[in-house]
Specification:
Blueprint (H helix, E strand, L loop, with lengths): L6 E7 L4 E4 L5 E14 L6 E13 H10 L5 E14 L5 E15 L21 E3 L2 H10 L29
Parallel strand pairs: 4-6
Antiparallel strand pairs: 1-3, 1-5, 2-3, 3-4, 5-6, 6-7
Keywords: DNA-binding
InterPro entries: NA-bd_OB-fold, Primosome_PriB/ssb, ssDNA-bd
GO molecular function, one term: single-stranded DNA binding
Length: 173
């Protein structure tokens, strides 16, 4: 039986993205995302809160988009999977590092600098602030699904005839 390795985060960036490039020139971006949890202690009645920090890695076009548009304080939605890497530190000790490798990212609200969730910056003018490594695959899957129009609506348009636009080189839809 296959397992499931899926992470979903909705959190706040604790710092600006760290972008670097692989030897082949592909972008790699690392994010530090905070998620908060709060509850009321049943014994004391006091509100408790805990912040959990997550290291998220993005690759390729998704990494370029994140590096260009995300800033500290911005809320972000991430889908991905956990990946644990083993490495040896300078002292020769084997260590492990667990990251979330993002397959999908969505910018939420504004840039984190304005109150009220107002959008700011060119990146917010994109269709919905959503970027995905699997965009091409998702479009192909949508094209393969059959849609049946409800007869009560008469001649409904055939959505399978509408071409899907892919990401252009700058990462816009």
């Amino acid at each position: 039986m296959r397992g499931i390795n899926k992470m979903i985060l909705l959190g706040t960036l604790g710092g600006d993205p760290s972008v670097h490039y692989s030897g082949s020139g592909s972008a790699i971006t690392t994010l530090s995302v905070a998620t908060n949890e709060s509850w009321v202690d049943k014994q004391s009645g006091e509100k408790q809160e805990r912040t959990e920090w997550h290291r998220v890695k993005l690759f390729g076009k998704l990494a370029e988009i994140a590096g260009e548009y995300l800033k500290k304080g911005r809320q972000v939605y991430i889908e991905g999977s956990l990946r644990t890497e083993k490495y040896t530190d300078k002292a020769g000790v084997e260590k492990y590092s667990t990251d979330i490798v993002a397959s999908d990212m969505q910018m939420i609200g504004g840039d984190g600098q304005r109150p009220g969730g107002q959008n700011a910056g060119a990146g917010d003018n994109r269709r919905d602030g959503r970027a995905s490594q699997s965009f091409g695959r998702d479009a192909a899957q949508r094209g393969n699904t059959q849609r049946h129009a409800d007869p009560s609506f008469g001649d409904a348009p055939n959505f399978d005839d509408i071409p899907f636009r892919s990401l252009n080189p700058r990462g816009y839809y």
